[in-house]
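new request in #modeling-help
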Amino acid sequence: MSLGITALGSGSGGNSFVVHSADGNILIDAGFSRKELIRRMLEVNVDPSSIQAVLLSHEHDDHLKGCRIFCDQFKIPLYVSFETLQYLKKKKEHKLPKNICEFTTGSEIPLLGMSIWPFTVQHDAIDTVGFEISCEDKKIGFASDLGVINNLVKRHLRDCDILVLESNYDLDMLRRSDRQIHLKKRIAGINGHLNNTDAIGALSDLLTERTKVLMLVHASSECNDYELVRTLAREQLEKMQRNDIIMKVIEQNRTLETIILDKLI
Ligand SMILES: [Zn+2]
Ligand SMILES: [Zn+2]
C-alpha cells in the first residue's frame, strides 16, 4: 500500500489526520479528546491500534488536546520538536505522554518507511511546523496553521501527490465579524492564519501534474464558509484546467474516508 490520508476533522475545535503507509499509520496532530479520536477513526474504518506514532505540528490545543492520553493508551510515541518540547515541559498544565521522540525542525524523521521533513511555518506558536512526507515516489505536503506562504513553504508544498493546506478565513467575513480588533489583527497577521485568497491563489504555484488530491483545511467557523471555499477552489481548478484533482474541504465535524494514492485511477 502506498501513501494515503484520512481526515478526522479540521478547524479551531480540533485537528487530526491519519497518514497511511505500507508499514503502518501515524497521526498528524491529535486535537480531539481520546474518545472523540477513536470514535472518528472507527467511523472511517481506521483501527486506532494501527496508529504507530503521533506527530505534533504545534502546541495549540486544537492540535495537542488528545495527544497525551491517546499516546499513553496505545503506548506509542509523540513526535514533537525540540523547542516545543522545552516549552511544554515548563508548562505544568501540559502533561506529556510517557513516550516522547524529539525532532529537529528542518531535519528528516525516518519513520515506518516514510521520510518526514518538518519545516518551519510562520504562526503564533513556539515552533510551528508543516510536514513534507515522502514514501518511494509519492509525496504529501501538509500545512494547517500558517500566516503566510513564503519560499520555504512553497519549496516543501510544491509538487505533491496530496496537498493539505489551510484556508482559514474570508477577509470580508473577518472584518465584519464581532471579534475584537486585536484578535482580527492576530488572525490576519503573518503569524496568524491563511485566508482563502492567499491559499487558493497559491495553488497555481503549488499544484503540478502529479497532484491528485487537494484538501483545504482549518476553515474558521465564524469567518469562513465551507461552500465558499469549495466554490473558490473549484473556480481556481477550472481556471487551471485541473478538474481531475480530487478537491475536499475538510470540515470540523465530518470525517472523510481514507484516500490511498495507489487506488486512485
Ligand atoms: Zn495554531
Ligand atoms: Zn489550529
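bot summary: The chain has one domain: 4-254.
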